[in-house]
Write a structure and sequence with these properties.
Radius of gyration: 26 Å
Strand order of the largest sheet: 3-2-1-4-5-6-7
Distance between the termini: 74 Å
Bound molecules: 6-phosphogluconic acid
Helix content: 55-70%
Number of strands: 11
Shape: globular
Length: 477
């Protein structure tokens, strides 16, 4: 008997993916650098299905039916290259290596091109949903060739999460498209988490509510339009009491957010594409600020002052207003993330269907939410939508939210509570809808100091003002 699929790298994600395939009736070849892990997997979970364990890479490859499908689940970067170098020579034309880790899409493009030359398929695929998702049904975002998807797609669809029986897995596009989309998924995840954190902070500091009370607020929100996995787990985390001290769990955790890099990559890529993903960027920077212990200590020691004691209370229903601010800011973050996906799709010729991305994020992944249904519908209606904000559903939502949103940002500023997510989302919204932006002045400054030229509103061409000359005449540039 040969295996339909193989997994090499049996740490928790790889192990759970292998078990998921086995539980769906597929024979799974398993391999790990140290054989112990492989043995453990078969001993502990062998009853769940059919595993073919191998100690050597050669035996592992020999245990697979052709075309061979080898999932690599190791650390992104050097370790992935090492595994590719080990396996590629053992494979034959038409076989495929599938990188299911959080690889950088440019690495995936490079690897795909190199392996294509050797007649092999390289599929960089996003897998979201953490350990539980890998076992019970993740959201899967495979890139690579159409041909590779024909041989691999049905297997991935089989183990993916489902919404009304429809798999949360679709061929995203060629080469690095899958990993790009997974990266933006993570960037959006950062933004969602930051916005939720700001909402909590305001309810606690301005509203005076306890973490446990705020957990109930989130539970309530979870029943409404904000309903999502991240809102749900936020309530769980806020309800948690530390066993040792009896204090709220959030109060015993060091307030420095860590990051493994996908959020930062999203922003770096957005800068190169020229797409303003301010919501995601603020959330990456907010984590960096929180982690800057030395700088924070210096600021505390210097006693940087906050607002005077007369900050006053919130003018409005704080809880309802924060819900509005959270929802509107979330819309902005998603609008920016989807715009980035569309820009990259154009840049790299990926032909990504944004509606299909929203569709496969509805279950399995970390940002799963009811909300994604509306994004899917928006792009189904008009695939070329320049921004989600002009879709009727989202337009109505931000129009309905904007007064509350402004009140929340004012309250945050008056109380000296940092709300970079809410504030920058609102600034983005106001920037987009502005009839005239002060960018005209920036053009003037650029022309003044660097003769960079400007365009006029009333005639075509590039113009330069001779700023140093007597009457500052304008010339065609
Ligand atoms: C997922 C998660 C997963 C991982 C993040 C955490 O989709 O399942 O996004 O990929 O948990 O990379 O990222 P940070 O450690 O950077 O917060």
């Amino acid at each position: 008997e040969k295996a339909q699929i193989g997994v090499t790298g049996l740490a928790v994600m790889g192990r759970n993916l292998a078990r998921n395939f086995a539980r769906h009736g597929h024979t799974v070849a398993v391999h790990n650098r140290s054989y112990n892990r492989t043995k453990e997997l078969v001993e502990e979970f062998g009853h769940e299905g059919t595993f073919l364990p191998s100690e050597s890479a050669e035996d592992f490859v020999a245990s697979l039916e052709r075309p061979r499908r080898v999932i690599i689940m190791v650390k992104a970067g050097g370790p992935t290259d090492a595994v590719i170098d080990e396996f590629a020579p053992l494979l034959e034309e038409g076989d495929m290596l599938i990188d299911a880790g959080n690889a950088h899409y440019l690495d995936t493009r490079r690897r795909e091109a190199a392996l294509r030359e050797r007649g092999l398929h390289f599929v960089g695929t996003g897998v979201s949903g953490g350990e539980e998702g890998a076992l019970h049904g993740p959201s899967i975002m495979p890139g690579g060739s159409v041909e590779s998807y024909q041989a691999l797609g049905p297997l991935l669809e089989d183990i993916s999460a489902k919404v009304d029986g429809e798999p949360c897995c679709v061929h995203v596009g060629p080469d690095g498209a899958g990993h790009f989309v997974k990266m933006v998924h993570n960037g959006i995840e950062y933004a969602d988490m930051q916005l939720i954190a700001e909402a909590y902070d305001l309810l606690r500091q301005v509203g005076g509510h306890s973490p446990s009370e705020i957990a109930d607020v989130f539970r309530g929100w979870n029943e409404g339009r904000l309903g999502s996995y991240l809102i749900e787990i936020t309530a769980e985390v806020l309800k948690q009491t530390d066993a040792a001290t009896g204090k709220p769990f959030v109060d015993i955790v060091v307030d420095q957010a860590e990051q493994k890099g996908t959020g930062r990559w999203t922003v770096q890529a957005a800068l190169d594409l020229g797409v303003p993903v301010s919501g995601i960027a603020e959330s990456v920077f907010a984590r960096a600020l929180s982690g800057g212990a030395d700088v924070r200590k210096a600021a505390a020691d210097a006693g940087l002052p906050g607002p005077s004691a007369t900050a006053g209370t919130h003018e409005g229903d704080l809880q309802a207003d924060v819900e509005q601010a959270l929802f509107a800011s979330k819309i902005v973050a998603y609008a920016q993330g989807f715009q980035q996906i569309q820009a990259a799709s154009k840049e790299y010729g990926w032909s990504i269907d944004p509606g299909a991305m929203a569709k496969i994020w509805r279950a399995g992944c970390i940002i799963r939410a009811k909300f994604l249904d509306f994004i899917k519908q928006a792009y189904d209606k008009s695939p070329e939508l320049p921004t989600l904000l002009v879709d009727q559903y989202f337009l109505d939502a931000v129009s309905g939210a904007q007064d509350a949103w402004r009140r929340v940002v004012v309250t945050a500023a008056r109380h000296g509570i940092p709300a970079p997510g809410f504030a920058s989302a609102l600034a983005y919204y106001d920037g987009l809808r502005a009839e005239r932006l002060p960018a005209a002045l920036i053009q003037g400054q650029r022309d003044f100091f660097g003769a960079h030229t400007y365009q006029r509103v009333d005639k075509k061409g590039a113009f330069h003002t001779l700023w140093a000359a007597e009457n500052r005449p304008e010339v065609d540039a």
